[in-house]
Amino acid sequence: MAIVKPFKGVRPPKELVTEVASRPYDVLDSEEARAEAAGNDKSLYHIIKPEIDFEPGKDEHAPEVYEKAVENFNAFQQKGWLVQDDKEHYYIYAQTMDGRTQYGIVVAAYVDDYMTGKIKKHELTRRDKEEDRMKHVRVNNANVEPVFFAFPDNEVLEEVIRTVTAGPAEYDFTAPDGFGHHFWVIDDDKINETITREFAKIPNLYIADGHHRSAAAALVGHEKAQANPDHRGDEEYNYFLAVAFPASHLKIIDYNRVVKDLNGLSPAEFLEKLEYKFVVEKKGPETYRPEKLHNFALYLEGDWYSLTAREGTYDDSDPIGVLDVTISSDLILRDIIGITDLRSDKRIDFVGGIRGLEELKRRVDSGEMAFALALYPVSMEQLINIADTGNIMPPKTTWFEPKLRSGLVIHKLED
Question: Which of 15, 86, 119, 366 is surrounded by the most beta carbons within 10 Å?
């Protein structure tokens, strides 16, 4: 059973939400955050990327930068830019992209569920990134940004979403990137009880996006429990901030690759080697998008090619072997190009599908890259299957869009 609870959210007054809300800390660098926050003292970037309040080039991991985050978080509350609700709530958070809306329930998720594996992951985390976010949680004594969960569809919770969102939203705005954000506060105690009860029937929650934030939030909660001699188990630090979406609401988009060189091969030799494991069809200069699982799009020297993996080159019964990222990593990047570590090799870069296939073409045509590979997106079913079987996806496999907007609600680790 998944344990969740409502909480006293800290959030901006309605009239300030568009000034406070920001993109997540990890989708832009310090200078981009500095530019986006220019002239806006209320931007959450002053809390989640506080290095922007120092001279350009400041080490974002310096102790005084974390201290600045706390100073700014406290100032936001003192100035009334962030205000804590006077009672515990669940919230509904919806996002609209390309005319499609997905609805999530904002919850305080249980730290022990993460520690015991009831909250399942599908990616490895890096300790340095975990430690950065742990410091941020520790110094602010709060989960300033949410993590992104999925859960198996539940009709009672769908009905809760329909009921709540039939009323007016507390926040309703379109961000500069064109994505819509809609947020409801659930005041009805019976509905809140229903949410708690229905989540308790769900065996597992799944981290869709935000593995480092999840690990950091849970580990800090665990630290606090161990350090408290009077620990009871119901303290607020036993929970962390998440937005949980029904799996059917979510759509994973493609996550593509661009590569700097052909490992000493000519384009003709490269295509010839591909023929051993793929059916190669030249499509010409018009953009080609992969049509199904095990079909890839290659862009090379001004032309697009369809690559279809030949029977016997993959294992559909293996949760990892069935993934197109595994097929392309093993049969193309490793065996032909000589790239064995996607995490560290400087010859490869990754482009989220939100940028479009034109971005792949641009980077090859510019001469920066030798070729591009576009992949068919992973499905939510595949993600859940990998998590359920205890497997880990290869790096740079899933891209979720839109990202959760930060600053709509914050969870304090003490009441």
Answer: 119
